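Appendix B, record 7
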Amino acid sequence: NAQSGIGILYMNKGLIQYEKEAYEDSKISFDGALKILEPLDMTFFSMGCYIHLARNELELGSLSNALKYANKGLELAKELNVRESIIHSELLLALIESKADPRNALKMGESILSTLPEETDDKLKSEIFQFLYHTYRSFGYWEKSLVMHERFLKSSERLNERKSSYAVAREAVKNEYELMLRDKELANEREQADCDGFPQFRPCRSVWHDGWGVARPLDGHLFDHGAEWGIRFVCAFDADFGHFLHHIACPQAAQHLHP
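Structure tokens (predicted):
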């Protein structure tokens, strides 16, 4: 419904603000989203709000609030059995713990790594490797620190490759859309010329294009969240050219512009 859409827009706004390091503004946006989405029993999105509120509070140095929100995010992630969000929340708790008890935080990080599924998102993996790299390094565990740094670099490289492929795909969609618009303009001009010169009735073909919508956490994510904390939302600011119908006067049969 309209209210849930507004809540999700607030989340996307919060993710953009987080990326710009406007943590206070981001916190306000996620809090606003939570006030809309939680009464609607939209648990999945509420979970994302709590996780990102914890991120913002951690950045702002409010450890007690960060701990409260991270625990709530973990509770909802377990309730929904969303594996990556469980890992996100556990890593957040380790980051918070590192401020008070780095050695215990290291144990928490190692526990996360020991049960980390191979198919885990590269962004999340890079966050875990980076945390363990810095923590091992702070204790002088140089060999383990080096291993984590190498794993961090590999996951980051894969992530950058994926981002590059997204950029190429986005440009392809943009070019195709612009070409389609030019074709429509030419067809309309031909139709107008026919009407002006030799008025006649002609059959109409339907030309459709299904497009792609783009989803970003938020970990924002947009949820890349700098850190992308794992949940991906439909972003109202991304181009979505899907599901629209054009009628162009032409004697040919229906044609798909895109495979």
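Remarks on this record: The radius of gyration is 24 Å. The helical segments are 2-19, 23-37, 43-59, 63-80, 83-98, 102-114, 122-138, 142-197.
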